[in-house]
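To whoever picks this up:

The nightly regression suite flagged RNA exonuclease 5 isoform X1 as changed. Nothing in the input moved, so I suspect the structure step. Input below, exactly as stored in the fixture:
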Amino acid sequence: MAKVSNGKRKRDLSPASEDSNNKRSNGLPSPPTQALRTKGPPRFTRCFEHLHEAISLSDLSELLQYAALGKTVTQPSWCRLHHQRKLSGVTVTILDDVTQVHFYRYYPQFKNLRRRYTTRCTLLPCAGDVSSSILNSALSYADTVTSENPKSDLRWHPVIRKFGLKTRRLSAYVLTAEEMSKNKFPLKGAPDCKAFVCTGKDDHVTDNSPLYGLDCEMCLTKMGQEVTRVSLVDSSGQCVLDELVKPQNPILNYLTRFSGITKDMLARVTTQLSDVQSKLIQLLPQDAILVGHSLDCDLRALQMIHPNVIDTSLLYKREYGGRFKLKVLAEVILKKEIQSEERKGHDPSEDALAALELARYFISKGPQQVVDLHLQELWGGPPRLPDSPVNGSSHTSPTLTSPLASLMSSGPPISRLTFGPALLKMGQPALQLGRLAGIDSHSSNELWRRQSCSSDRKVLEALRRQVQSHSLCLLQLSSYAQLLTHTHPSYTHRNLRKLMGGLREMCVVYVGPLSPECTERDVKRLCSSCGALRSVRLLSSTHRVHAVVEYELLEGAVLAVERLNGCELLGCPVKVQRPVGELTLDTEEYLYDLFEDALNERVIYATGVTTDDLQMTMDQFGPTEGVRLLPQQKKRKHAFVKYHSTEAVEVTLDPSAEPSLGQVKVCRALTPPHLCTWVPDAPETPHSNGENGVTEDRRDRQEVGEEDVDEELEAEVDMKTAGVMRKLDSKFPWRVSTWPVLPRGQTEVNCLTFRLKGTQRNIQNTDGRKDTHLHDDLTEKGHAPP
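Regenerated output under the current build:
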């Protein structure tokens, strides 16, 4: 527990006071909404040796569930998300029809994306709608509900979800600054609170800080609701302030039915709002905690800012984000009647005292006992979750006999609970934004909120307005998809093959001239020293024999040009060069961008290792973080080595290090760590002919119906695509840091953004082969996406 010099502690750190050295009972975590002191900011990590292993959509859903729901669900097994409690939400961005192939083919256009993301993972192809699959994914639990431990199913009760099972001390229930902001409390420095008066009290509270109940009654003026009566009750239950207040503006409606205020009552009142503000400041001690029911309304009516508050409407939470009336809580919990129908209007001193007693009761009993004692009469039975898919039907709660026994006998099985309904149950429904089919306007009556937007700009504008009020946002950006709608239906497939061909052509080198006796086996023996080969083909139609060699990875082609040029093969010196064609004219600039990729800043590619001492060979230049061996070719090995420092990389690549490396050839890594090969397997792309052009296989084109594609339209789309990619790159919500995921296969890009408490971060997903990028740029919370 964090201490300060005067023996007091920050209220938003105090929940750690009881749990910092003890394990939680029943496997239930403290709520993620409580801001606890943890070491360092939230971060995503994955072992370097496993970055190349593809993840599935269920793996991705598992990560999102853990990010949004915390330790009530299983931690993802394929990665680690550190300090999850500091996350405030997740944003998923889907780029329609943009694939991983597009990302790497138009790599120079994605300047923001490749600069900001420091990790990528490959996502396996997934059928169906990605958003619906995520929202309908079954929850994976950290523990198992059994008849011996039925209370563990209480995890989904809104009170338990927020506060956990442990009984905490008073300061644990004081709202954090983030919770106050989310619930519209007036805050110092907020644009709409510039004229508000701050009580000047400090934000350090102890478990012995005094509680003061506060309630106000309002009337309606031309400026809205204004205060007409204020009551303050001290810790002993005594009313220390009960004042009538004259509104500054003419009264339009006294709201007598609720306020009890009449025209005659205010006729001789001269007390102004400023007078009441001064009295409150004088009456409240330095570490006073104000208690009220929907206290944000009272403080706004008073135009006052106070840092330490407990709101009973947020203590006794209802499902789906609803709130109980103070009258209901008083009847059920305190067994007393307030706001009687026989009396005209409410008594604010009575309401303030009721809120004070409700807060004391909750703090003394603890969340578990409060739920156990009042589950049936207050919440109407056990927490339930609809188990239906999108637009499906929900279950009807059966008649209950015993609150705890009913947890095992009613409701859907625990394995059928899904992610989207779980968020809805917490009062934080997911938000879908984009060009959604069949949706003309936004709707909040379904399992998650969906809003159709006419353009990507509208999507981002809607996100800017609503991102802070949703734990999960799903965005659909469709600029490229709209471009494709104007083309022939088969153009997408044909264009993807063309892009794959362009990527593969960068891994191709020409070797020659060769001796007439030279065979493919001889060429393989020479060229495999630089990396794994995909294919070797001899060109006998040329004046002299040459070979077309394609490497699995781009590094192989780079090393071949650097190291094999001038080598002798069967007594003939050979020249190694890259092909020159329409798709490879900018290869040098492209390679430079890859050299600058932050993902490979501390990674080198090593080939030609013929012994098992690779680790020892690399460690002589500096400590390594990880080594990933690539598939072997006989005894020769190829590997990626990640060092702890960039200095070790420079030393390894220095020409003076060659004697220490022996037969090992090294170069700076170009292939992102998540790729096993430079391009995914796909239908064979056109081969370069003996000159430098590209020959189309017309029979294959006819088989897939590509012959009828308008070539002029195709050329126009090709020209516009780079610009569209550049615009999409600029549209990512950069203010919430992102970790991208680029999917494998021919689907769309998915981008996941983790928003932090106090800072913001995110994860993104790009399809083609899907590929995941993670970046560590943190920005202050409150900045909306551009």
